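Researcher: Structure for this, please.
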Amino acid sequence: MSDPNATDQLAINTIRFLSVDMVEKADSGHPGTPMALAPLAYWIWTRHLRHSPDEPTWPNRDRFVLSCGHASALLYSLLHLAGYDLPLSELERFRQLGSKTPGHPEYGHTQGIETTTGPLGQGISNAVGMAMAEQLSGNEFNREGFPVIDFRTWVIASDGDMSEGVASEASSLGGHLGLGKLVVFWDDNHISIDGPTSLSFTEDVVARYAAYGWHTQRVADGNDLEAIEVAIQGALAETARPSFIAVRTVIGYGAPHKAGSHDAHGSPLGAEETKGAKRALGWPEDAKFLVPDEAREPFAAARENGKKLAAEWRELFGNYAAAHPETAKDFSDRLAGNLPAGWEDALPKFAATDAPIATRSASGKVLAAIAPKLPQLIGGSADLTPSNNTQVKGWSDFEAGNRSGRYLRFGVREHGMGAILNGITLSKQWIPYGGTFLIFSEYMRPPIRLASLMGIGPIFVYTHDSIFLGEDGPTHQPIEQLAALRAIPGLTVLRPADANETAEAWRFAINHRSGPTALALTRQALPILEGTVAHAAEGVPHGGYVVADAPEGQTPAVILLATGSEVSLCVETHRALAAEGIATRVVSLPSWELFAAQTQEYRDLVIPPAIKKRLAVEAASPFGWHRWVGDGGDILGIEGFGSSAPYKALAEKYGFTVENVTARVKKLIG
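Model: Predicted structure, token format:
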């Protein structure tokens, strides 16, 4: 082992005790991990990370992901010392209301944070997506002599990240894809919140990553900067595989009684233990938030180097723009969120005389039509491509030997797919989508939630959206999934009634870059409705609209509210009731979120408050529908888990027939 020089050691201890002081003042947080990881993080940030606090969104910067987001004090210490917009006063407000130093790092909230981490396994999985985006963008935009995209993604992950299944899913795919610019450091400290990791975690993690196809190394002592540098050089020399470096550390390093113990994990050290740690490491024991001038010097040098690298990139990009103006414009437009002019003209339109078509199939037709107009659109499926209709004809697969491929093969990895989509989206150069069955949104809930929290726009394509998928039975028939997705703040759920609504749902999803979109699509064919031919283009963006109404001059006795495949059922019922002299209105509500965002005046036009008799029809849990039907209404939904049978038999069993809906309307109006 080689000892750090005095300046390095001073800077490392500055990181340690800024982190400890943050946790102590807040009386909340995780001090032990920053104390252990300070040497590794310091070395990465001052010697290898290509970044510029003066241009924090410089496109070709390296990405740094602290996957163990509970160690956020470490990242805030680094950002402050590096020169990002995070003054010492914000470190002193750690975990306080309105501070820039929340308990876990939040993208868009604090300058320099590349992704929101905290739920373990998500950060490292996002990083796989970031590394994929780098390869995609490099292939798309780099030209001979102009490597405008050429960055690395650096990750520090914890035992918890290694334990979570999503990290395994994403890491397995990352190894398969040969993401050579992805470097992951595993903080191997042998400690979990419960106690030693040996209580439940004894596998050979390094061997596992080698089996995934990663280049693996070990560093025996996390304080050994020379060994860390040797390992990093080994990772930099490896271009065909991602790199995994296990770094043995001591949690709470320096603390006299809590070092190496779970007592240093999830709670403050305490005043006496903090003083003891400071004494042990030669730090003034009564000092708080101390930053010696000399400790800033390595970070200042790194900042100047970053400023130089960013300036060189700007010069390179200026020459690139002169040599390749159209490509450079596309590059800049994507970062700015500008879509190609006229792409919406490619959206297909469907006539009421067209044959019935499943909305999953209509989605495939929409993708085929718009993909040539949207070079930033990429996507794939979690091994359900033929069922999800997510592949575009002419697209090749993104693979280790083909970085021009736009189709992403995620394998049976729904959770990993969601997190990877988030990582790709964060590049701001791609609009990614991923497909699976609606039931498996259960496996994707954490990345969906984090996409919403970050305000980024991946597109989640969910097919087989109800019991009407049929014979696969209740294990695959989604019941509560629509309600659960609708409960996530910031997520827009769209369940289109037919092919026209599907096209409009895709129009919204592509244009909506400030939050994720979930499309819920049918397996069974649906008729093209006259009401969508006339009104879907205006109605879908509003979330709800009238697709069939009472004759002019008549007030509807009942309003029928529905989404997806049940809209056509309500239209049929509307006609049957009209033949009996009962006037109704049918309202399609493809997106509750969009409808709720409209003015009260608009919502009252669609669902007049004076008409209290309302029947909601949806082949799913009735949870949430009371908001729209009110006190005088009724809901036809499903309280159980479905059954295995052909879908027409299921419609009879669960009452989704014209006869039953008609009877429910008559009962409602007495």
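Researcher: Any notable elements?
Model: The chain is about 40% helix and 10% strand. The mean pLDDT is 97.
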